[in-house]
What does this fold into?
Amino acid sequence: MSINKKKIIFSAVQPSGDITIGNYLGAIKRWVDYQNKYNCIFSLADLHSITVRQDSVSFHENIIKSYVLLLACGIDIEKSLFFIQSHVPEHSQLGWVLNCYTQYGELARMTQFKDKSQRYQDNINSGLFTYPCLMAADILLYDTNFVPVGKDQKQHVELARDVAQRFNSIYGDVFVVPESMIPEVGAKIMSLTDPSKKMSKSMDSAAVINILDEPDMIFKKIKRSVTDSDSEVKFKDSKNGVTNLLNIFACFQNMQRDQVEEYFLGKNYGFLKKTVAEVVIEHVRFIQKKYYNIIKNMDFVESRLSLAAENAHVIACKKLKLVMEKIGFLC
It folds into this structure.
């Protein structure tokens, strides 16, 4: 893949296997849309995943599953560069270099390190502490202009900016200084059983709709979703369960709030749940069909992964070589 004058977007996601509709509507669907406007570089950040202990068999399967599922969701390998992080060793190499240009205090302030240290107290490893440096390497290797992130990840992009500017101040214009791209209106999909909390893979199965869920399962989950004792189908802060279902409908149908409320005017909760379930099922059925067609052809998958790694290596190697030369390594 050649990089032309379009602005460059880099985004990565850890390979956790299935994708929830929250992941899809909040991030992946947006990735698909970006492909028509930007030069997009996407990665499965498998190296980041091992800051938490992984079962080797499940981890291997999840990497393949995640890759194929993202293709099925609409990542177009003819338009975008999409590779597995560990297949491009320059990420790890630059990550080490940037470790040496990042201050301890900067890493100690990372809120995600603090959060994960609390959640995984039996495995507070050094990778968990320094992985923002690897994330910075992911971004800076490709002259990235924009990094689509949620507010919880903005701190990491700010660190990448600080490190890039620090390195540039010593050695000249080596790195493009990236900017965060935070959507003004994000699709925030909440738990079906506790709509005060964002939908997450770590939740109980009943709270989450996965892209690969069977139609009957999706219908049952939405039918049992929390609403309230009222009967009005309307967006309202005090009606977070109903609002969540309306948001899901609006995102899948690409409709504005006023259009959605007009559509459901005078309808009851039974009609709302049935309609939302039908819309979700119809959309994910298309993705599922593509997924199962691709996963049957592992020769195709492996060939595309190999080609993507080669293309990413060409870009990343050039940037790493410049970095090493600037520092004074023999290259």
